[in-house]
């Protein structure tokens, strides 16, 4: 796949920050998005126009959207739960709205406090409003690879929700592995089926690394023809059921692997790592990113200093494999 | 690959413990190996017969080997650096000795304090000794997918070291991604070449998760025909160049993924997780395992309690994807 373009979509300032206890200052959010805009992303999910009471961490959505310097070639998207949110988002001139519901009834009730049909009706209303503009519409389907309460989700269930939204004229659908339940063969089969049935929809895969499989699942999705991935700088974005577990797939780790494998993400990994290094100050704690700790594959080390006999003075590695 | 057997080889008590600052009591080591013996592994690397001065953490190698209850069907292997170590290991009746050297000159000098040719001569001598017994011989080739000082390692370089050891009559070779520099397409190409050129050697892949790619690399190796993997309980086994970064690929995460994908590892994941949960007490700190924190994919949760209006009292998830 040498040189094949892959589209990387950053979600840290939305999916990441919404879970953080420490409020990230509006100016810091704006500075971070501006920095990310220069990194080469296809899309940045800037914030969420949910109720400030429900998600206080993102209560400054308008200020952030108005404050950032938008650059050509990057799609600026925001999460929108209802028509009120859509109106707020549209008034900020967003490029895309991202709607969300779960394909599992239990998760939808838990997360959105309503049944799936009620969610669908609400989102259909939002779609009706947004379609009067030229703003793009994406729908993120949560728990598409498993529900932490119901378990397996039938592929047919996912495809039928995609179908309902496709019929409403959305531009894209994101299949979300909300709590890291996806595994490679499942991902491959679902992606193949989705690509085949919806060849004109813009398909995004949204992985969490809760059980360590995010990059393996990415490989499976790539092989099935997917070329668009959500990812979160530093691996931000926790799972409330797994305190201490990693969150979304880490953008710098995703880009690092894809570029090594010969794909063209268009993302500048050096800039990305520099931006990720700023996160701990913003959120008040370390981030899950392994790459930030270890450095890139080819960030080489010098040999330890040698003693007079030409042998290293100190063993840099424990004897082992 | 439904039902295809995959051989899992545990290295935590050797590659993991050797890097730990806290000495794990001999009795605890024995109890852990005994517990692991019941889990269904193909092989357990119990300890290392290196100089107690070089690796004090494993200074009790004889006591551990004599103390464990070996069970039928599990190969008990140990790391051996030289003939002195080989003699100690043979006196304990090990099933296999595992020799180690690096395919990169710089890493071999740093890790083993001698050049590769000197290492090869020393290991050839060990092989000569061990071949007089019916104990199996494996060679672990470190830095086979990259050297933290030299960078890329040519595939031809790896194959030619394999060739030299194959000519000495070793039974198996382990290709080690010592500092987590491997990436999927590289792994696939190397494994294909190795399988083709050495069809009768027992090939093992040994991944580290330093940059998050261990499970993705596992997928690539599987696709290239590899069926045998080293892994470390809890993800133990740090890289001295990346403090805080994860170590070896985590056994429970590897088994979890493989079983979900339909492979047959023979390993009991429930027992494995129970054993992994003991590690923090033994080593005095948390382990990298995400699976230990998050639980298995199908370890389901109940819905939050409902208020009188039938809606969850508390939002268990932040609104998001």
Automatic annotation (TrEMBL), chains A, B:
Residues 6-273 form the Pyruvate carboxyltransferase domain. Residues 302-321 are annotated as: Disordered. It comes from the Bacteria. PROSITE patterns: PYR_CT. The keyword Lyase applies. CDD domains: DRE_TIM_HMGL (cd07938). Pfam families: HMGL-like. One of its GO terms (molecular function) is lyase activity. Keywords: Lyase, Metal-binding. Belongs to the HMG-CoA lyase family. This is Hydroxymethylglutaryl-CoA lyase. It comes from Paraburkholderia terrae.
